[in-house]
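Ticket #4471: structure output looks truncated?

Reporter: J.K.
Steps to reproduce: submitted the chain below (61 residues) through the standard prediction queue, then opened the result file.
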Amino acid sequence: MQRSLTKGPITGSILLFALPLMRAYLLSATPLGVTGIWLSVPIGWALADAIGIGYYLKKKR
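Returned output as attached by the reporter:
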């Protein structure tokens, strides 16, 4: 059986593009308001990067 090499990048892509709406909605309900919506994008980038780095380090061992 062949292993998939795209599992990590696909997971990162889903987190990068699918979850910003939820984060934006949740952050807009806080006192941050519209600023929370804008902050949801870099938060998503950081989460996707962290997951990608974690996946890389896990596979490297």
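Triage note (M.O.): checked the attachment and the full token line is present. The chain has a mean pLDDT of 80.
Status: closed, working as intended.
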